[in-house]
Here is the input.
Amino acid sequence: MKSTGALLAIALAAALGLSACGSSASHKPSASATASTVKIALTPSGCAPKPAHVPAGEVEVSVENKDAGAVSEAELRTSDLAHILGEQENLTPGLSGGFALELQPGHYVINCPGASKQHWSFTVSGKSSGPSWSSNHELVSAVESYRGYVDENAASLVNSSEAFCRQIDAGSLQGAKLAYPKARVYYERIEPVAEIWGALDTEIDGRWENPVTVRSQFVGFHRIEQQLWEKGTLAGTSSLCAELVKHEQQLQTLVHSATYNPLEMAGGATDLVNEASTSKVTGEEERYSNTDLPVLQANIDGAKEVVSLLGPFLQGKDPALLKQLEERYAKATKTVDGFKESPGYDGTGYVEYSTVLDSSRRRLSGVLNAYAESLSQLSTQVS
Here is the structure.
């Protein structure tokens, strides 16, 4: 993800275009009056962008899967393929979605894993310009505060993971199980930022079969999780945990040198709750430990932080939307709180997620989806 001339938000070659990773298949960007619209049809042969050349500025990308059974996502990457700037995934045939972001002049690549031709050229032309929001002090303040929030959570992620590793090194299986979910929440609050560095995100948070399909490359949180809960052993986890912390420290450096903007903050908040309402609510992420509930709350809280920071701006721009966001956050949190228990399963403060009935999961998904729908309107307000 590098190529500094190509990105809106760059510092020390660290890109931050918050991706739409894991976003709901029903979510589509709401085009502003000045945005360029790009349509991508996923097919077995590829994902050609139409048009393949747009002017610099806000870009709304619409993705539709017509008949591609083996292709389910489209990514906007830097020309060296190292950074994902925006993506829409989990689109099976018949579904559509999209993402929005601002782009500076440069050459990019549209990537669709699984297609016979995966890489398609995409060009942004024009003169480089400063962000339009930079003259609004409320948005500038929100961006700066969000930087602090990301830095704080990245630091806490490293510290809590080091504590997790100490339990492993001490040979305490139960201690490691108690420490694992405490570390996870910090990653989940800033997941849209972390996901921009695709390879690093996989090394920290990659799940077996999605996207990791080579056993030797299955590392990070979920590899350790599998050892602790499914296999009931600490074997091999000490080196895995040391490697996890090393990758988190790399992430901490990258997020500190990145630059943020309101549109990406809004998109990231939407994606956090979209993913929670679709895939995470099924229990697929914490499949070995069943510690899903604190993860879901961390996603909700990460989105809430963005709303809180953008709140002063929204109060003047669209107070009705701000009120709706606050109400739906409260309802989402109240629903998750309904599963609280003290001290809770493995010290999480919640029940074991495998005991949550399908009917309750559907209700939770509905509440989260409603919150995500409100969040999706943020992008229009700040663009």
